[in-house]
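Researcher: Following up on the earlier apo prediction. This time include the ligand. It's nicotinamide-adenine-dinucleotide, with the SMILES given after the sequence.
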Amino acid sequence: MRVTVTGAAGQIAYCLLPLLARGDVFGYEQPIELVLLDIEQAQTSLQGVAMELEDGAYPLLTAIHCTSDVNKAFVEADVAILLGAFPRKLGMERRDLLVKNAAIFKEQGEAIRKHAKEHIRILVVGNPANTNAAVLAQYASNIDKKQITALSRLDQNRATSFVAKKLKISPEEVKNVFVWGNHSNTQYPDLFNGVTNRGPLPDWLRDEKFLRDEFIPVIQERGAAVIKARKLSSAMSAANAVKDHLRDWFLGTQDIVNMVVCSDGSYGIKKGIFFSFPCYCPGNGTFEIVPHFPWSSFGEPWIERTKKELYEEWEQAFTALFPKSSL
Ligand SMILES: NC(=O)c1ccc[n+]([C@@H]2O[C@H](COP(=O)([O-])OP(=O)(O)OC[C@H]3O[C@@H](n4cnc5c(N)ncnc54)[C@H](O)[C@@H]3O)[C@@H](O)[C@H]2O)c1
Ligand SMILES: O=C(O)C[C@H](O)C(=O)O
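Model: Understood. Below is the ligand-bound prediction.
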């Protein structure tokens, strides 16, 4: 299995690469070859990462290739994990970030179309992840949209862990806590479908004041809180969520998991928009959006807000990429 990781000299990659090499993601019997892409200025650091991978003496890791050439990076790739993105700099508006990253994901989408295996499975992590995935899907035009996903599992893990801590139980016992929409602070973390293996969540966890004043803002702002505390964005937990997302997508799970996927019109979300939905993963890189989880009247305005943000993001990226067209 040939796995391409972009942004491979960055901090998420540093936490993720050992998990891939050890077999935690694709299974303990699956040999993998890693192709590590980063920009020219990061090549010395990338060489250091490759040395450390070699020094791990991982039995499943059959080869490591480092490159700064996007066209070489995706040759014959079975899986692409897209971590590399332009970071937000001081004074940059969200729109500037969107446009900068749209250019990167356009280039990578084209390279995937030309060079990757047709059955490739893609996970976009670099922010703004939903819209980057939508841009990539436009340009990797020979790839079925169901092969392209983005990461919202970190948000689901955060929400699940929050509930487990409140109830003093293991996160394993908490199911069906979902995060809908954009991987941004408009996401809607939803406890109305949540259960534990002892039964439904207690009423106080669904109290509207508690949801509005505590649960929802804590989950929506968790990424910012980590940045404030570490002066760096979350990396260990992001790598762990990448592992969970890919393992479940490839090896299957009975749990309903959050993935950002291309809307097929489910839940009234416009087709083509990449939205975080609850998904069922039977294995082998397949998933189905689970269609029947209710939002409750409390959830509707939150969903509207995140949906609106995603439609606007897509319009901005689309206008930058195709200045003379209209949606
Ligand atoms: N979706 C999520 O849940 C989630 C969670 C955490 C972080 N993120 C995002 O993931 C991304 C990576 O985070 P990080 O902490 O590893 O960042 P980082 O800055 O440590 O690493 C990013 C790496 O990408 C490289 N890069 C930049 N442009 C590139 C390009 N065109 N091609 C290849 N490589 C390129 C950089 O040189 C750098 O080495 C960021 O965009 C971050 O906001 C997403
Ligand atoms: O990198 C960020 O802006 C935050 C990150 O997406 C996170 O959720 O931790």
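Model: The two ends are 38 Å apart (CA to CA).
Researcher: Noted. I'll compare it with the apo version next.
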